[in-house]
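Hi V.,

You were right to ask for the full record rather than a summary. Here it is.
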Amino acid sequence: MIPIHDKLGRICAFTGRKLEQTPEWGERKSPKYVNSPETAIFEKGNLLFNLHLANKKISDDQDFLLVEGQLDAIRCWSMGFQTAVAPQGTAFKDSQANLLYRSHPKGVICLLDGDTAGQKAALSYVSLFIAAGLDAKFAELPLGSDPDQILQSPNGVENMQTILDQATPMLEFTVRKKLPNGVSSTPKQKDSLAQWIFTALSEVDSRVALEGYLQQLSRLISIPIDILKSDFSKHQRNKQPKYRDIGNSSSQKISSESSDRLTSVEEDLLFVLLHDDRIASPLANTLDMSWVDLRPIAGRILAKVLSETQAESSSLTHSQIEELLEDDSERTTYHRLLMQEPDDTEPGVLLRLARQCLSVLFLRHIKSEEDKIFTKLRNSEDSPEELQNLSKDLRELRSQRKAPPTLNISI
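Predicted structure:
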């Protein structure tokens, strides 16, 4: 039995590891790990195994070591690699990447099992690291081995250090895996890779970091930097809501049928509130604040504006909103959206946008809750009572989906 701690070191759950002596469960093969059920204090996606100890060793010149299993983390820690952490038996998530970022490490080195599944998982981590602002590298282990086996072998510590020293920066790793032929790959293959990386880079707030990533990509695939920047700008325009292009083309207007703004719904709503304060109070009383993603800068500003509007029972002036802003990044985002003009040739365009965004946030929340239930169902120990409760919760969510919130105001 292995205790699981939260980031402050408090035990919040346990995991049981199958041993050779563990009997099978009838005809079914028993799982390798059995975790405590998720509770209010134990959400696997919001915890990292051994983070409470690794945090004591981390600094701006030390990397976190991200391994796949809890026993791997224990073995690494006991053999001197004391910044090792591991997910709780599930896929690595953005919430866990943000946990690592908040500890201000030098970066993260992923120790990947040397199998196909490990390599596939690695590529899914890249966008999470970029979005979280983490410098990451990937260290590939020999096929069929894991950190626990390597460290128990002769000269295990030295062999492990060699593997870590040879870790590949994440963009170089991505290019190597997605472009097996390297710079001799076809133009179509290079474009496909660039578009994949552009999607991840869309989450980068720092212009310095973005410039650095594009310079790296230019060098790795032998494409001139100015061409990459042009393609990245085009990629961004294709993802942006219609209102951001207003003024560039008189034919571009917001449409209630448009769906290209789903990736920036918080920014869309903030834009609406800055340009029509009549929507603020009805929206604050309709929108559940837990639906707002606080990771984007616009999401944090939106949450402040709506919370303050709800508390004051009235919309805020621009000067009142400015008083809520805490740093330069928030002020930059606020002024950028404030300076943009909506299309005033189409009546009610901002209200339609607000209603569309409210619908997107609601459906995103419902899907997130459904995913949690499906995860619990997969990890369920076939307890009839637990399965019945989860099925009930799922039916309630699906019933809620049929009655989405509405923003009833006339403008």
